[in-house]
Amino acid sequence: MSDAEARVRAYHALSKHAPAAFAEGPGQLDWANQPAPFRRYGGAPRLPLWQRPLEESPAYDAVFAGPVGAPAPLNLASVSQLLYDSLALSAWKEAGGSRWALRVNPSSGNLHPTEAYLLMPPGALDEAALVAHYAADLHALEIRARLPDALGATLGASLPPGGCLLALTGIAWREAWKYGERAYRYCQHDLGHALAALAIAAAALGWQTRLLRQPAPDELDAALGLDSVAAGEDERVDCLLWLGPVQPGEFALPADFWTALAALEYLGTPNLLSPAHRDWPELQRVQHLCRAPRLGLRPDWRAPPAETIPANPGLPLRPLLHRRRSAQAMDPTTGIQAELLFAWLRRSMPANAPVPFAVTGEPARVDLLLFVHRVRGLEPGLYWLARSDGAPPTGLREDFARERVHAELPLYRLLAGEAAGLAEFLSCGQAIARDGCLSLAMLARFDEALADGAWRYPRLFWECGQIGQVLYLEAEAAGLSGTGIGCYFDDAVHELLGLADSRWQSLYHFTLGRAVWDARLTSLPAYAHLRLPPPA
Ligand SMILES: Cc1cc2nc3c(=O)[nH]c(=O)nc-3n(C[C@H](O)[C@H](O)[C@H](O)COP(=O)(O)O)c2cc1C
């Protein structure tokens, strides 16, 4: 075992929650130092983006099979739409004198560690090529650099026509403020949700979303001007994406392009997120360890063709993206039909949804352990969806039945019986896991991924976040709701399954059912606080 793998394993162990000992966190929340939820670059020129009517929408079912229709031209309208449908605000909530923003993409604790930066070729949004930060609260771009002509020309010549690059970054401090050492995991979950949100919004524009393996994220921090943030508020690139017309394989920009970018004078001063910070040394170590190296280009970016699953005929995509919400409480009496659950599971299979699952190019490594509570046509109990290779894992408890219950889906009954109380207990005692129609744990092939390199550790959480995003939308499409659950007792899940080693690790939980909304909360429209230019 490499030293890096051993250290990632040590982080994983120390960031586990157990009934008797939660992973080390701050204890009480330090409200005076609550991080600002929005990154802002003071003094950077702003480019307002548009909002377009949500009725102009492709069908919900269509986007999962691949980019829909002819690719939209790359311009202010399409970039506005992409960000509006993926990372924008979707509502404000108000209660007891406080007001907070919610977004199209969900986030653990609503803390939103993920930021987005665009690298635009010349002539798309401006005559010059641009590096721009997306300010979600303004639905605007903050221009951080206008590239000199020669550099812009290199970018224009290196990128396939009609597309751009987008980097997703993480500010771990935002999550660490509340969750301490475990926060690294949440940042990666959130990144997976954001990846899926972007891939879905891009597919609606006829665009492909693919992760670039070059350059390495380490080479990108300075190139994107992230080195001027305050100490304690490090912002690091997690991934760089191609967004645009379908390309057959990966391309690379010249290495000296990135060095030249790093030498630019960046516009704007990053805001201070908190007056003071607390260090979480293990989190910082694992973040450093798990950055991907410069990897070989992927020659084949195509995803095997998927058929559109017509589960929700006539349902438009965009309104649904904007009304997605996490349930804070679930109605304990609502049930669903088994056919609906099967439709959700079908959609979560990687082969059925290249959007969003083909984005990273990683093999599927996450299976689902279902706690079925109230699903008509499927008796309550524990089930396994062998999402990654079709067969239930070896090494599970011997008294598990492993009886296949569906002809098409690799879905196996492990144990019949009431599992609601168990699901609640395993999700840190959260009633949403008990009161949903079902809840689930996402179990990842941990040893296999780590043997490939420490950098694969965060990608397991990305896959979990991608699955979570699909489930959120599926629930919403059925008039129901989902909630991601980052708080769970890791090893108690493994003990339940009789897993004696680390081949499988539980990395995320989720629940689906009928939400009970809190009547004390008032909702306000996302951008009621702004006057935006009219749509074209
Ligand atoms: C990775 C992740 C973990 C989460 N964990 C929990 C949880 O343990 N309990 C809970 O009630 N909500 C959890 N949530 C839901 C968030 O609180 C919710 O996404 C956030 O408040 C924003 O609200 P929205 O999803 O309605 O936009 C989680 C969300 C994510 C993305």
Radius of gyration: 22 Å
- Number of helical stretches of at least 4 residues: 16
Low-pLDDT stretches are none
Choose one word for the global shape: globular
Mean pLDDT: 96
Keywords summarizing the entry:
alpha+beta; binds flavin mononucleotide; seven-stranded antiparallel beta sheet; 536 residues
How would you sum up this structure in a few lines?
The chain has 536 residues and is of the alpha+beta class.
Q: What do you see in this structure?
A:
This protein has 536 residues and is of the alpha+beta class. Helices cover 29% and strands 21% of the residues. It is built from 16 helices and 21 strands. It has helices at 3-14, 76-84, 149-158, 172-179, 183-203, 217-223, 255-262, 281-289, 317-323, 338-347, 354-357, 420-426, 431-435, 446-451, 456-477, 490-497, and strands at 41-42, 46-48, 89-95, 98-103, 114-120, 130-135, 140-146, 164-171, 208-211, 235-244, 269-270, 336-337, 366-372, 375-376, 381-385, 403-404, 411-416, 438-445, 481-485, 504-513, 522-524. The chain starts with a helix and ends in a 12-residue tail after the last strand. The relative contact order is 0.16.
Secondary-structure map with pairings?
Elements: H1 3-14, E1 41-42, E2 46-48, H2 76-84, E3 89-95, E4 98-103, E5 114-120, E6 130-135, E7 140-146, H3 149-158, E8 164-171, H4 172-179, H5 183-203, E9 208-211, H6 217-223, E10 235-244, H7 255-262, E11 269-270, H8 281-289, H9 317-323, E12 336-337, H10 338-347, H11 354-357, E13 366-372, E14 375-376, E15 381-385, E16 403-404, E17 411-416, H12 420-426, H13 431-435, E18 438-445, H14 446-451, H15 456-477, E19 481-485, H16 490-497, E20 504-513, E21 522-524
Parallel strand pairs: 12-14
Antiparallel strand pairs: 1-11, 2-7, 3-4, 3-21, 5-6, 5-8, 6-7, 8-10, 9-10, 13-15, 13-18, 15-17, 16-17, 18-20, 19-20
The protein binds flavin mononucleotide.
